[in-house]
Specification:
There is one protein chain. 41% of the residues lie in helices and 18% in strands. It has 11 helices and 12 strands. The strands form 2 sheets. The protein has a 10-stranded mixed beta sheet with strand order 2-1-3-12-11-4-5-10-8-9, with helices on both faces. Helix 1 packs across helix 9. The longest helix is centred in the C-terminal third of the chain and has 19 residues. Bound molecules: 3-isopropylmalic acid and manganese (II) ion. The site of manganese (II) ion has 2 residues, from helix 8.
Length: 360
């Protein structure tokens, strides 16, 4: 069986890091397994054509097995309401393809400098699971602006939306090895249930779902408090589930504790579709200089293989995913190649070549 993968290079460093991941995926899977289908999209494309997500790109995403994306967004390319055009590319994909689960692994790799004192690789290994299709983002493009005097965005929670992200969290925890601190399978519900009805609803529905998973602990943390816990006791966490906006924020904090957005992979999953991309942005200031780190996008490619491997019971892909993760960690751990964001001078293409050599 072969898999059709849409690649959307996007803007800024997007093409460099996306093509890096494609090269690594080709090396790891060999020929005849992955067919890459490059499709246009993003802010630059919008400037040229007026479309951030062309219909033919959307249809290709809908029809194929998975999507691999570089990054999108260029400063100053905005809609009349002030929101950024580039971001609309994957926001449209999220909402149109119902990619409700944004899976953001937070893992300290050997060879990556950890800004937290006293934590070693293996002690920080959790996932921020962000509900990806409602919450405060449900108001994107739908907020109210009255006479330029009063502007509101509404936070939306639905029972379906919360139940399915909670179930995803508990199922994910079951597939992991528990929190590094105590090996316990644990889902931490991050909210502000003490203040807002919507978050109290989020917490209540997560608690209902937890009843079906007696083997997984449930834990609660307010969104403000959890920012301290993620610094002081990151080894306590296994899976943190959060509403869209809170998930957006704490996942960047989590990435910061394990080396930055340059190593932060992400998988945005629906029932039938998956979008894989680094959690970083398009970094236009360093675009075209071959200095971007491809680590986040390469690791997102490994997440894509894991997801496809699980969906299609294809052990070839699961093996390739593991080899890619080991190769990236080996290159980082041996200091063979140190990306600029980690204080080194390795070029994007050089890091890619180092990973490919390990895979050969
Ligand atoms: C992310 C990004 C996006 C978001 C932007 C680029 C639309 O910050 O994926 O974390 O806000 O979700
Ligand atoms: Mn973000």
């Amino acid at each position: 069986m072969s898999y059709q993968i849409v690649t959307i290079d996007g803007d800024g460093i997007g093409p460099e890091v996306c093509q890096s991941a494609v090269a690594v995926l080709r090396e790891a899977c060999g020929s005849g397994v992955l067919d890459f289908i490059p499709m246009p999209g993003g802010a630059l494309h919008y400037q040229r054509t007026g479309q951030v997500l062309p219909e033919e790109t959307y249809q290709a995403c809908r029809r194929t097995h998975a999507m691999l994306h570089g990054a999108a967004g260029l400063p100053g390319v905005t809609y009349a309401d002030g929101t950024e055009v580039g971001n609309d590319l994957h926001l449209q994909l999220r909402f149109k393809l119902d990619l409700f689960a944004n899976v953001r692994p937070i893992r300290l790799y050997r060879g990556v400098k950890c800004p937290l004192v006293g934590f070693e690789p293996g002690q920080i290994d959790y996932v921020v699971l962000r509900e990806n299709t409602e919450g405060l983002y449900a108001s994107r493009g739908a907020g109210v602006n009255l006479r330029g005097d009063v502007v509101t965005d509404t936070l939306v929670m639905t029972r379906l939306g919360v139940e399915r992200i909670a179930r995803f969290a508990f199922e994910l925890s079951r597939r992991r090895n528990g929190a590094p601190r105590d090996g316990k399978r644990r889902v931490t519900v991050c909210d502000k249930a003490n203040i807002l009805k919507s978050y109290a609803f989020f917490r209540a529905v997560c608690t209902e779902v937890a009843q079906q998973y007696p083997d997984v602990d449930i834990d609660y943390a307010y969104a403000d408090a959890i920012t301290v816990h993620m610094i002081k006791k990151p080894d306590f966490y296994d899976v943190i589930v959060a509403e869209n906006m809170f998930g957006d924020i704490i996942s960047d904090l989590g990435a910061g504790t394990v080396g930055g957005l340059g190593v932060a992979a992400s998988a945005e999953l629906g029932l039938k579709h998956g979008l894989f991309q680094g959690a970083h942005g398009s970094a236009p200031d360093i675009a075209g200089q071959d200095v971007a780190s491809p680590v986040a996008t390469i690791l997102s490619g490994a997440l894509m293989l894991r997801w496809l491997g699980d969906e299609h019971q294809d052990t070839r892909l699961l093996g390739a995913a593991q080899r890619i993760e080991h190769a990236v960690e080996g290159v980082l751990a041996d200091g063979e190649a140190v990306p600029h964001d980690q204080g080194g001078s390795t070029r994007c293409t050089e890091f890619t070549a180092a990973v490919c050599r390990r895979l050969q």
